[in-house]
Specification:
about 25% helix; 10 strands; 3-stranded antiparallel β-sheet; alpha+beta; 6 helices; 2 domains
Length: about 210
């Protein structure tokens, strides 16, 4: 498919795919803080700790996830940290594919929808990477890890994008971060918006799209 399988000694590059990396999940409303003078952790909202100038010890949730290196190659050699984007099942990343079954529909989503939705990058299944289902890179979910420590975990690298896919991946990241954010439904009239919301129910009408009484 679109993957290569470098030796474990190969340097880390953009497009490298890792499995089992830690994604930290924490609540800013209920942070479990560990204090020296208390036997049990204390639940404290982050707003009460934000002004602290010293490091805080806390208990957080950690989930092992697959992720792909987003940092450019030159920075993967010199910078302290490496940024990766989380990889999940494509049905979870692109909600339009949730109930997709027909091959024709998949082709439309993978090709046409990829040009419209800049928030993800499609990864086809490949048993050698551990991807039994269609997968997607979610550009909105990032992980930061220390470069030296990631180099020590190259055994968790299952593959990388081939040159064609890597070039596309690089452009997709650039497009995502430089895109102009706007609510695409803003120029629709009320009837058009009603049709749009059948597919995108989270679209909130603007005041000029709300029918006036009388």
């Amino acid at each position: 498919m679109i993957y290569e399988f470098p030796p474990s000694t190969a340097p880390i590059r953009q497009g490298d795919i890792f499995v089992g990396l830690p994604r930290i999940d924490l609540s800013l409303r209920r942070l479990l803080v560990v204090e020296e003078n208390r036997e049990n952790p204390t639940v404290i909202p982050w707003r009460e700790l934000a002004a602290n100038t010293e490091a805080i010890s806390a208990i957080v949730g950690i989930a092992p996830v697959a992720a792909i290196v987003a940092t450019q190659d030159c920075d993967n050699v010199h910078e302290k940290n490496v940024t990766l984007c989380e990889i999940r099942e494509f049905r979870d990343v692109e909600r339009l594919s949730k109930d997709t079954q027909a091959t024709k529909s998949w082709v439309s989503i993978i090709t046409r929808q990829a040009r419209l939705n800049l928030k993800w990058f499609y990864l086809p299944p490949d048993e050698r990477l551990g991807f039994r289902e269609k997968m997607g890179v979610d550009f909105t979910v990032t992980l930061r890890v220390q470069r030296v420590e990631l180099e020590e975990l190259r055994s968790l690298r299952t593959g990388r994008l081939n040159p064609l896919a890597d070039e596309h991946f690089r452009e997709r990241i650039s497009e995502f971060f430089r895109r102009y954010p706007y609510d695409e439904w803003y120029p629709l009239d009320s009837d058009e918006l009603a049709d749009y919301r059948r597919r995108y129910p989270d679209a909130t009408p603007f005041e000029w799209q709300i029918p006036r009484e009388g």
